[in-house]
Amino acid sequence: MDKLIEFVGRHFVFDEQIYPELKGANEEKRLAFAVRHSALHFSKTAGKVAAVSEDVDHGGELDIETVKENIPKAIISTLKLAEIVGMKGDEIVNAIEKKYKNNIDE
To answer: Sign of the CA dihedral 74, 77, 82, 85?
Structure first.
């Protein structure tokens, strides 16, 4: 997972050339922008999957290709958030294990 986090960090960069709003921004503002922008991308991706699901609720067919197309996008957004806040793969795995171990034990 760390390799994926590093890959996403290298290929999805928040800089002034791509995002003019960052020109002259301090580190705190850059961090807030990066978290917000990543969350917006995640929401946009979730919305695409939700639209597919909503179409099915109204009698349409499940567009599984759109779902598949958006799974990597959702993972990229999540891994970018991890990279932004300095979270490592083992921290993510441990948090997931802890959450679901507690749910299973209850």
So the answer is: negative
pLDDT in tens, 1-21: 999 999 999 999 998 999 999
User: Do the beta carbons of residue 34 and residue 84 sit within 8 Å?
Assistant: yes
Tell me which residues of the chain have a pLDDT lower than 70: 103-106
Prediction pTM value: 0.82
Tokens of 42: 């995640």
User: In angstroms, rounded to a whole number, what is the distance separating the alpha carbons of residues 40 and 80?
Assistant: 12
10, HSE (Cβ side, Cα atoms, 13 Å): 6
**CA distance linking residue 54 with residue 94, whole number of Å:** 33
What whole-number distance in Å separates Cα of residue 31 and Cα of residue 7?
19
